[in-house]
Write a structure and sequence with these properties.
Largest sheet: 2 strands, antiparallel
Strand content: under 5%
Mean pLDDT: 91
Shape: globular
Radius of gyration: 25 Å
Structural class: mainly alpha
Helix content: 55-70%
Oligomer: single chain
Strand order of the largest sheet: 1-2
Number of strands: 4
Low-confidence stretches: 15-19
Number of helices: 21
Length: 418
């Protein structure tokens, strides 16, 4: 148990130079928080369910809700929670502990608003060209019902906005475009849903304008928000002029010169992937960093840099490798050796890299940008058997190729494999 604790402490995501908090679950982009919550709290769940009834106890991750009949019993709940959790060396978050009356519960959990959205979803379980106008009109009417009243902005209101952004994407509505910037400022946790509200409707210019306005407002730009923005761009099929704008912005972020950026590695690495996806040349990517800057790159940025350049022009791998000589990360060195192995044919196979995703709200599925990147990289192999395997893989990519970036990469891979 002591070793496990040390490992969790060592691998817990850090918040810049801030000290790691000693309480709560770490916020991460993986699913380990859910598993940790269950590992620690199943025993606590059993005690609470026995004490107050299984039907009255609900836990989501580390958030717990318990239904009781009186304030007296509510105070007893807090006492029991404190004692139960302390037996496992955990503490109750007193700042988030609230006593809610039935009316408060309805307001906090947005029961009426959720019901209105549920009713709309039941009425339009599938939006088609034939019922699109009706579905859009009904959703706008639903928003008119739930957007006024004393429940607005309280409790789980952010979850209502999250559902509305998804539903408005489904009906291709611009209803929330004007409020998106303020929602992003007020509730940064909505960033992915807001960005995809634009990108899944292929509103490329509007998405760029939104992000530019957010940066210009000098708001605190989180690393995760930067990364989510560039990941959302990968869903677009933009006009050539807008693709140029995307490359200019991504170049600034990748090189660390953009206005207000956090400078953290995830956003910069995602920007490099966007440069690759939207047609930046390998020569331009290679010139982003000189030898001194390359050696200081965070490992995530260095890995994205060497991978995208090698995919676009394998002959530049040795030049990038020479710039990265002396880089402190073993991960970068291992990737460099792996890429060399692909090119010289010593790497004969590769793991599962084909990740299909839904084009929702459009019909069909697609392979994501990272799947295309791996296929593009591997297509430069000189190993005959490996090439034959990749050719079979390529046949599964072709039927799902629709957007301009996909078609461009499909042509590049075809030239190498055929």
């Amino acid at each position: 148990m002591g070793l496990l604790g040390r490992l969790l402490e060592a691998f817990k995501p850090c918040a810049g130079h801030s000290p790691n908090p000693r309480v709560g679950l770490p916020v991460d982009e993986l699913d380990c928080s859910r598993e940790l919550a269950h590992l620690f709290l199943f025993e606590h769940d059993t005690r609470m369910a026995q004490e107050f009834g299984e039907a009255n106890y609900v836990r989501w991750m580390d958030d717990q809700n318990i239904g009781v009949a009186s304030l007296t019993e509510a105070r007893r709940v807090v006492n029991n929670l404190t004692r139960s959790l302390s037996s496992q060396r955990l503490t109750v978050n007193s700042g988030k502990t609230k006593f809610l009356s039935p009316e408060d519960v309805a307001r906090h959990f947005q029961l009426d608003s959720n019901t209105e959205i549920d009713n709309w979803e039941e009425l339009f379980p599938k939006v088609t060209p034939g019922n699109l106008a009706d579905a859009r009109g009904a959703l706008h009417a639903t928003w008119g019902q739930i957007s006024t009243g004393d429940h607005v902005g309280t409790g789980n209101w952010v979850k209502i906005l999250r559902r509305m952004y998804a539903a408005l994407s489904k009906v291709d509505s611009d209803l929330f475009e004007q409020r998106a910037l303020q929602d992003l400022i007020d509730d940064p946790e909505l960033d992915e849903r807001i960005f995809q509200y634009f990108s899944r409707r292929n509103r490329a210019q509007q998405l760029l304008n939104l992000f530019s306005s957010y940066c210009s407002a000098r708001e605190n730009l989180f690393e995760a928000t930067e990364s989510v923005f560039f990941e959302s761009l990968l869903l677009l099929d933009p006009e050539p002029a807008i693709a140029i704008q995307i490359r200019l912005l991504a170049t600034q972020f990748a090189s660390g010169t953009a206005l207000g950026q956090s400078g953290k590695p995830l956003g910069r690495a995602s920007a490099l992937l966007a440069l690759y996806w939207f047609g930046e040349s390998a020569v331009s990517l290679t010139s982003l960093f000189d030898s001194e800057a390359a050696r200081r790159l965070p490992k995530e940025v260095a890995r994205a840099w060497i991978s995208t350049i090698t995919a676009l022009r394998p002959s530049l791998l040795s030049q990038v490798q020479s710039k990265l000589v002396g880089h402190q990360s073993d991960d970068v060195a291992r990737l460099s050796a792996f890429l060399s192995g692909i090119l010289n044919g010593t790497v004969r196979t590769i793991g599962n890299y084909k990740h299909q995703k839904s084009r929702w709200p459009l019909p069909g599925r697609y392979y994501d940008a990272r799947s295309w990147l791996v296929l593009h990289l591997a297509s430069s192999t000189t190993n005959v058997d490996f090439r034959a395997s990749l050719s079979r893989d390529f046949k599964s990519f072709l039927p799902l190729t629709r957007t301009t970036p996909e078609k461009r990469l499909a042509s590049a891979v075809r030239r190498r494999l055929l």
